[in-house]
Design a protein that fits this description.
alpha+beta, two-stranded antiparallel ribbon, 6 strands
């Protein structure tokens, strides 16, 4: 009888539950952790796919943007583009239009930025001077074909290095805006920024907060 009592299994006879051992709890904990991390991974992959499919693919803005120190680093130019850049005559009697060639990949905003960079380099013909202060750099260019508008961004030297005076400010704006109008004749609006933000004036005279119509500066 004693042997019969010792061989009884309370789980089989009484329908009870075996006590959960430490090893079993540990195994279940590891399984739960694996399941949680698997769900997190699936969510991340699904979210990334949604981002690239919707935001990068289906909702790209219409504005064409050109940024960065080396625009041609991402790909080789498809050819050259003939452009015109405008500089004041040294005696202030008028302006000189200089023809140049720039490397082009047929991307308008990229071409516009390279044209502005060419303008910052100064004239190559005698009798002309640069209307942009020394050290001025063209940082970025934006074109919105929907409303034929342009935004140009120059480095801070455009303001901090400007000599001042109404004639000097007018010469700077004429050089920039006439260059835009000659190379992009459809442009109806041009905003000029300095270090990514608007400025009231170059040196205290002409209003820079309003958009300019480049055609009026021809």
């Amino acid at each position: 009888m004693a042997g019969d009592r010792e061989s009884r299994d309370p789980v089989r006879e009484g329908g009870g539950h075996r006590p959960t051992t430490r090893a079993t709890r540990s195994s279940r904990g590891r399984s739960w952790s694996v399941l949680v991390w698997a769900l997190v991974l699936v969510a991340v992959v699904a979210g990334a796919g949604w981002y690239f499919a919707v935001w990068r693919g289906g909702q790209e803005p219409a504005v064409e943007e050109a940024l960065g120190p080396d625009l041609l680093a991402e790909g080789q130019p498809t050819g050259d583009r003939a452009v015109r850049v405008v500089f004041p005559e040294w005696d202030g009697s008028g302006f000189v239009t200089e023809e140049r060639q720039i490397p082009s990949r047929d991307r308008p905003a990229e071409d516009l930025l390279n044209i502005m960079r060419s303008l910052c380099q100064g004239p190559q013909v005698s009798g002309a001077i640069s209307a942009l202060p020394r050290g001025t750099r063209a940082l970025s260019a934006f074109i919105d074909p929907a409303d034929q508008s342009v935004v140009l961004d120059f480095s801070g030297q455009l303001v901090t290095g400007h000599p001042g005076g109404t004639l000097a400010e007018s010469a700077t704006l004429t050089s920039i805006l006439r260059t835009v109008a000659l190379n992009f004749p459809g442009t109806r609006s041009c905003v000029i920024l300095v270090d990514g933000g608007p400025v009231e004036t170059l040196a205290g005279h002409l209003d820079m907060l309003r958009p300019f119509d480049p055609q009026r500066w021809l």
